[in-house]
Amino acid sequence: MRWIRDEEFIRGNIPMTKFDIRVLAVAFLSIEEGDVFLDIGAGTGSISIEGALQGAKVCAVEREKEGIELIKKNKNKFNVDIKIVEGQAPDCIPSLKFNKCFIGGSGGRLSYIFEYLEENLESEGVVCANFITLKNLNEFIELLEKYNYRNIETKLIQSAQTNKIGLIKGNNPIFLVKGVKR
């Protein structure tokens, strides 16, 4: 298995889930051949592309025009098939059934996204999200509990890299959370 490094993606001013978090998120989701994967707040498409490379059928949702263009460029660069939906989730998402979902950005609409998940995420489906704020983290966990998700896991990930001269530069701590739908 080959994981794509951050510098290989075409980037812009749209946030991208960094390598360490991306690898863990795909592992949390257990994406494999034949999965139907919904990526909400897809940004540059990094998670969508990794999911497609694992064999999933992918739908990427992004509201920012720059993000849509970056997803198109990256999907072409890595030669993967991704359905791209432009707009604010969940309003723009077609009614489709899927078994894996990643939420990289919610636009403050987590409760509405969970209503959509209630109707469209299959039983035993996995939802995973990452957060940098405690407010959004707490809201997500409360929604997982409200909708009776099981196997809820929360991790706080802190990573750092050394630069060319050996100085260590830390990244923002990221909360990674997942739950399995009953």
TrEMBL record:
Gene3D superfamilies: Vaccinia Virus protein VP39 (3.40.50.150)
Domain Methyltransferase intervals: 32-128
Coiled-coil region list: none
UniProt pathway annotation: Cofactor biosynthesis; adenosylcobalamin biosynthesis
Keywords: Cobalamin biosynthesis, Methyltransferase, S-adenosyl-L-methionine, Transferase
UniProt GO MF annotations: protein methyltransferase activity
Superkingdom of origin organism: Bacteria
UniProt-listed GO biological process terms: cobalamin biosynthetic process; methylation
NCBIfam families in alphabetical order: CbiT
Protein name (Swiss-Prot/TrEMBL): Precorrin-6Y C5,15-methyltransferase (Decarboxylating) subunit CbiT
Native species: Anaerosalibacter massiliensis
Gene name tied to this protein: cbiT
